[in-house]
Structure formats: structure tokens, C-alpha cells
Amino acid sequence: MKWIDFEKPKSIDEAVKLLSGSSGNARAMAGGTDLIVMLRVGHPRVNPDVVVDVKSIPELNELSYDSDKGLTIGAAVECYKIYNDEDVKKHYPAILDSATLIGGTQIQGRASFGGNLCNAAPSGDAIPNLIAHRAVATIAGPNGTRQLPVEEVCTGPGQTSIGSDELLVSINLPSNGQDFGANYIRFIPRNEMDIAVAGAGVSVTVAGGKFTSGRVCLASVAPTPLFVKEAGDTLVGKPVGEEAIQDAANLAKEASKPISDMRGTAEYRKHLCEVLTRRALNTAVERAQGS
Ligand SMILES: Cc1cc2nc3c(=O)[nH]c(=O)nc-3n(C[C@H](O)[C@H](O)[C@H](O)COP(=O)(O)OP(=O)(O)OC[C@H]3O[C@@H](n4cnc5c(N)ncnc54)[C@H](O)[C@@H]3O)c2cc1C
Hints:
Layout: E1 5-7, H1 12-20, E2 26-29, H2 35-41, E3 50-53, E4 63-66, E5 70-74, H3 79-84, H4 86-91, H5 95-99, H6 105-108, H7 113-119, H8 127-132, E6 136-141, E7 144-149, E8 154-156, E9 159-160, E10 167-173, E11 180-187, E12 198-207, E13 210-219, E14 226-227, H9 229-233, H10 242-255, H11 266-288
Parallel strand pairs: 1-3, 2-3
Antiparallel strand pairs: 4-5, 5-10, 6-7, 6-10, 8-9, 11-12, 12-13, 13-14
Helix pairs in contact: 10-11
Bound molecules: flavin-adenine dinucleotide.
Flavin-adenine dinucleotide binds next to strand 2, helix 2, helix 7 and strand 10.
């Protein structure tokens, strides 16, 4: 292993200076549950001269709820804090679907949603759920701060639209009404500590027996988490029921572009997209209707 400097900035400005001052060779670290593993195995995509530990920056540790602004999850907030938070439990119960299944208890003590997003694995279990919740990323860089919908962050396996001189500060989830429900589920061959063969994160709003909105995002079936806009859109205006849900599930299956690997064939993954989208939508509807 080569020599790597370790820095622990206390502010966003300091972190951005470190990231932008090292010609692309500095790497932010939150929980390190992806980064340290990659450094140890000498992953070709990760070869920093400087590791910038962002866990001492106050804004990256914020976890707050406001009925107007929604939920702010600082980029370094660990999963265990997310799933133990009373506001998250009350206003964003479906976020627990992801926070409780990333790794096991030890991993959840370090792993963050921010790291999950910036790692940009097609199988990242937080990402489809964030996209279903219409989440927006706040990113700081040398030229200030910008906002980006989460569905525009991942650009390829391990690649994002966040520059090497930029820092993910937080993820904001808008407030939802009583008529909102969401769900994230994945299929894995065993119950713990594995990568999704396929996953589906969905959300709906319902009023007067009809869908008023829908969002569907798939995991592990494309080079990035796959936001299937048409699958959510097809629900809108249709009566809440099996027919509309099946239409959305079929569109999700059609949109998926899986590969075959040791976890499953492309055909099997396509089948899973339909099944998981349908099941997740049924649970989201139940949650939206408060049952
Ligand atoms: C045993 C084990 C089990 C796991 N199980 C799962 C699982 O079930 N589901 C799943 O999705 N993942 C799983 N993972 C992967 C990992 O735990 C998650 O992706 C986790 O959410 C990463 O968060 P982190 O804070 O540890 O990220 P880190 O490792 O700190 O960072 C990940 C990447 O994001 C970058 N980064 C981090 N923070 C920032 C920031 N603020 N701004 C810009 N870039 C940043 C880093 O440079 C790095 O490239 C598992 C890992 C292990 C070791």
C-alpha cells in the first residue's frame, strides 16, 4: 500500500480546499465502508494521495426535519442514526427500508447515505429509495454550492457528476402529505450482507381512489440506479389497483438493462424487476392509505 495523507477538516471550505488543491488526487471519506475496502484491495479506480475524512464537518452530520423544508440528511450521517431518528420514523418510514438493510449492525454504525450515493454502485440500496422520495443533493465546490436531483448524480458504475474538487454536503427529501407512501425492496440470495440481484424503490401519492403521482427506480439492472420515469407516470390518473400497478411493473421490466453475472442472468433480473416493482408499489399504496 502506498503512502496516503490523512486530513480531517472541520469546515466545508477547508474540505473543498483540500479536494481542489490536490489535482484530483484527494478522496472524501465518510464511513469508509466502501473506500477503505477499495484502498485495501488496490482498486484501480481509487488511488488517492490524500484521504479527506469529512465526519467532523457539522453540516455533513446534520439530520433535521422541518415541515416546510423536509428532511435533511447530512452526507456523513450513519445509517443507525437515520433509522433511530423519530422524525424519519414518523415522516419518512420507507427510508428505514434502506437504512436497516445496508450491511449489518457494524456497517450501519459507519455507513452513510452520502457514501452510498457517491460510491455510485448500481446496487446501492439507498439510491433508488432517495430517487423515489424526489431527493436533491447539495454539493459544495470551489465555485460555491449547487443542487442536483439525486437521479442525476450517478453517471456510471462508481462514477458521479460530483467533481473531484467537490463535496456532497447533504441530501434533502421534500415534505410529503398523508397521501404519500413509498417502499424499497431488493432480492438477494441470502438474508444478510449481500449485493442486490435487483431492487426497486417506489413512491406514490393517492387521492380519491386514484394515483396522483408515482416514481419507480430500480437497482442492479443497469450501469447506474435506473430511474424509470414512465413507470411512475403511467400510474397518474388511474384508479388505485392491480391493473395500474401491473402496467407500471411491466414498464419497469421493459426499461431494465441488466447483465448476466454470478448473481443471476439478465432474463432472471428482468423478471425480478416486474415482481419487485409490483410488490413495492403494493406496499407503497398500503402505506399511503395508512393500512
Ligand atoms: C460488509 C459490507 C456490507 C455492505 N452491505 C451493503 C448493502 O447491503 N447495501 C449497500 O448498498 N451497500 C453495502 N455496502 C457498501 C457500503 O457500506 C455502502 O455503500 C455505504 O453506504 C457507504 O457509505 P460510507 O459512508 O462508508 O462511504 P465511504 O466508504 O466513506 O465513501 C464511499 C465513496 O463515496 C465517496 N464519498 C464519501 N463521502 C463523500 C462526500 N461527502 N462527498 C463526495 N464523495 C464522498 C468516497 O470518496 C468513496 O468513493 C457494504 C459494505 C460492506 C463492507
